UniProtKB/TrEMBL annotation:
Domain Leucine-binding protein: from-to ranges: 34-379
SUPFAM superfamilies: Periplasmic binding protein-like I
InterPro entries from the UniProt entry: Leu-bd, Peripla_BP_I
Signal peptide residues on this chain, from the entry's feature table: 1-22
Superkingdom in the source lineage: Bacteria
Stated name of the protein: ABC-type branched-subunit amino acid transport system substrate-binding protein
Length: 386
């Protein structure tokens, strides 16, 4: 009996030792590999954003792998398509965390999608980058494992409207926004600018997400005597509003969020984009920084992929490089806790894709510097105006 107990005790110790070793190996990490995941709209109209963003993530990973990986470990990416549908975002995040066992998320989809998936991400504790949406719930209050790369949408709208008000003083304003969290952020920023600048608002309208006909809303803008419009759509909605203003010959300055700052949007607006403005923190493709960045990622993407590059490629790349920078400083003993802690120390990181980013222990929103842009119909792009 004594010998049997001794053998059982030895077996228990051996089993315990195995469990300790297994626990020490963080999910998604082996001796040779680190598995990353992202959840994005890769199909449907929002794929214009999601695919481009995914290309930035892929370029960053390919670049690091070509240089030997992260402390000797190569990176592998698993991408999930949520089609910009919150329920699919939840399913995709659950798969990436529980089935694919990824170490970290390089990207989380849009505002409503991130909001829906956040409880899962927060409970899991894995490092998660949020470079597409920067809604307030991602960083207020601070979430230990979530890091938003970009500029708070409501603050960006506040900045845009304020700068446009300086360029067009004494004008009457109108606002058209979406009936969801994204639209709420737009309205919040607009209202703060209106209050600070003492603007006269003659028309405010809220449209249903997915709406494609804005003839009624734009007619009301004209009838109200609005001289400047804040178009709070995502992509196609803003294009339609601007084109409708042109159609009824009410060519007034229009502000759009940085979400719309993609070549396809400017191209679709055509000559109607003559007085369209936005603010952004991502370098213009035509800038010296943008050309250098294009050359860099062109070494890792095919010609077909390069044709789909836009500002979201820049955000995907920048956020992934910030994540990799933090992972690298953890050495071989790579863990979620270490990576989260190191991400909170990222300071003035120049990724070459946007103005420098950084976080602190109490601020997980990297708010790069904004600059004002105006659409350039001839070049189907935007140009800095200050």
């Amino acid at each position: 009996m004594k010998h049997r107990l001794t053998r059982l005790a030895a077996l228990a110790l051996l089993t315990a030792g195995t469990c300790v070793t297994a626990a020490a190996q963080q999910q998604g990490v082996t001796d040779t590999e680190i598995v990353l995941g992202d959840i994005l709209p890769l199909t449907g109209p929002p794929a214009l954003l999601g695919v481009a963003h995914n290309l930035g993530v892929k370029a960053a990973i390919a670049e690091v792998n070509a240089a030997g990986g992260v402390n000797g470990r190569k990176l592998r990416l698993i991408s999930e398509d949520d089609g910009y549908v919150p329920s699919r975002t939840i399913q995709g995040v659950r798969k990436l965390i529980n089935s694919d066992k990824v170490f970290a998320l390089t990207s989380v989809s849009g505002t409503a999608q991130a909001q829906a998936a956040m409880p899962l991400i927060q409970q899991a504790g894995l490092p998660a980058m949020a470079p597409i949406t920067t809604y307030e719930g991602l960083y207020k209050p601070t979430i230990k494992n979530v890091f938003a790369v970009g500029y708070d949408m409501s603050n960006a709208v506040d900045e845009l409207v304020s700068r446009m008000a300086d360029r067009y003083p004494g004008k009457k304003w109108a606002l058209i926004s979406q009936d969801d969290d994204y639209g709420e952020n737009v309205r919040d920023g607009f209202e703060r600018a209106v209050k600070a600048k003492k603007l006269q608002v003659v028309s405010t309208q809220i449209y249903k997400k997915g709406q494609t006909d804005f003839s009624s809303e734009i007619l009301k803008v004209k009838q109200a005597g609005a001289e400047v419009l804040m178009a709070g759509g995502v992509l196609g909605e803003n294009v339609t509003m601007v084109k409708e203003l042109e159609r009824i010959n009410h060519k007034i300055p229009v502000g759009v969020t940085y979400v719309s700052r993609v070549p396809a949007s400017a191209k679709l607006m055509g000559a109607a984009a003559e007085n369209v403005y936005t603010v952004d923190y991502v370098y213009l493709e035509s800038s010296a920084q943008g050309k250098t960045f294009t050359d860099r990622i062109g070494k890792h993407l095919s010609p077909e992929e390069m044709a789909r590059v836009n500002r979201y490629t820049y955000t995907g790349y920048a956020a992934t490089r910030a994540l990799i920078d933090a992972m690298g400083r953890c050495g071989k003993a790579l863990t979620w806790d270490c990576t989260n802690a190191e991400l909170a120390k990222v300071n003035n990181l120049d990724t070459g894709a946007m103005t420098p980013i950084g976080f602190t222990a109490t601020n997980h929103l990297a708010a790069p510097k904004l600059f004002l842009l105006k659409a350039d119909p001839a070049g189907a792009t935007y140009k800095a105006v200050e």
